[in-house]
UniProtKB/TrEMBL annotation:
Residue ranges constituting the Guanylate kinase-like domain according to the UniProt record: 169-360
UniProt protein name: MAGUK p55 subfamily member 7
Keyword set includes Transcription regulation: no
Keyword Transmembrane helix: no
Family, similarity comment: Belongs to the MAGUK family.
Residue ranges of every copy of the PDZ domain listed in the record: 1-43
SUPFAM superfamilies according to UniProt: P-loop containing nucleoside triphosphate hydrolases, PDZ domain-like, SH3-domain
Alphabetical list of SMART domains matching this protein: GuKc, SH3
Organism: Tegillarca granosa (Malaysian cockle)
Amino acid sequence: MIHVGDKVQEINGILVRNKDPKEMVMILSRLSGPVTLKLGPTEAGDTGMQERSSNTRVKALFDYNPREDPLIPCQDAGLQFKKGDILHIVSQDDPLWWQAKKEGDATSSAGLIPARLLQESPCRISPRIKRSKKVRKMMYQAVQSGEFDHGEIATYEEVELFHPRSGIYRPLVLVGPPHVGRNELKRRLIASNPGHFAEVVPYTSRPKRPFEEYGREYNFITREEMESGILAQRFVEHGEYRGNLYGIRLDSITSIIRAGKVCILTPNVQAIKAVRTAELRPFIIYIRPPSLERLKDSRKNQKAMVTLEDGDTRSFDDEDYESMTILSQKLEDTYGHLFDKVITNNHLPIATTELVKIAQSVETDPHWVPISWLQ
Ligand SMILES: Nc1ncnc2c1ncn2[C@@H]1O[C@H](COP(=O)(O)OP(=O)(O)OP(=O)(O)O)[C@@H](O)[C@H]1O
C-alpha cells in the first residue's frame, strides 16, 4: 500500500509530518533496532487511497500461504487465502505482486499476493527450478516481455456479483464421486417442491424396457441419431455403457430454464466444463462423502444400493467405499476451484436441509460468477 508521493508522518512514533527530509534522515541515523514508519497519502482529506483502489474482484483458484513462499519480498506483508476465497484486488501496479483484501472481511487489511503472471511462471510450476535471485530477474524480464504462456493454469478468475432475477433460475449442478448420493439428494430436493424443481430426462440408444415409458426414464433414440447429436455438440455429457450410448442434451436444460423452473443436474464431474457456461450460469455443488467409517455405517444403515448406468442396481462393497474416498480427494484437487458450495453427505436429512437452503439462497441472494457471464 505504499505509493510514490506518500509522506512520512511518524518515525517510531515521533511526529515528523512537516519536517524537512534532511531532519528525518538525521532522526533515522540516530536510531538502532527496528524502525517503524507511519505513512500517509499525499492529498489532504485522505481521499487518495479511495481513488487508487480498483473494483476488481477475483476468485482464488489455489491455496496460498505467504509463510511458505520463498519468493515473496516480505512474508509479513503477504495475505494468506484459500481456494474459492473472493479477493478484492486493491492494486495491480506491480506486475508480480498484487495487493488484495479478503472480500467481506472488513477487518482484513491489504496484503501482497502473487500476481497472475508470477503464479503462472516456470518457477511456480516446476519446483525444481532454483528460486535464486538470478531466476527472479529472468522472471521479471520474461513477465515484462509477455513470454509466459498462461493458458490453462488455475490462478484467479475475475468475478462479479450476479443478482438473481425471479422466474429465470440458475440450474443446480450436483457433482461428486460415483454413488455418493447425488441422485438421492436430487430426488429429495425435487420432492420438497415438485412444481418448482425439475430434472432432465437423459437420452439413450438402449432399447426401451417393458416397464419404461418414452420420455420418462429416458428419451429413446437410435444410435445414429445419438451419434450425430454428439458430433453436433448438442450433448453436454455423453458416455457408453455395455454397448449403449447415454447422454444429456443441452436443449433439455434450456427448455426447463425457459419454463421458469430450477433444473437439477447430476452429471459426471468431467462435464462441469461443458455446463459451466454464460448461457446456463449453473451453480455447482460438490457432494462430498463423509469419513470412510461414517460412509460405511451410514450406507449400511440405509441399505444403500449402487445404481448402474443402465438403471440396474447392486449392493455396495468395501471397494466402493474406498474408491469413493480416494476419488473424492482427487476430484476436489482437480475441480475444487469450480465448486460454488460443498455439502458433506453424511446424515441424509441434514444434507437435504443444507441443499434446500442453498437452493433458496441461489434464487434470492447475489453470488459471485465469472465476469464473462455478465458481459
Ligand atoms: N447420506 C446417506 N446416507 C445413507 N445412504 C445414502 C446417503 N446418500 C445416499 N445414500 C444411498 O446411497 C445409494 C447411492 O446414492 P445415489 O444413487 O443417489 O448416488 P449417486 O451419486 O447418484 O450415484 P451414481 O454415480 O451411481 O449416479 C442410494 O441407495 C442412496 O439412497
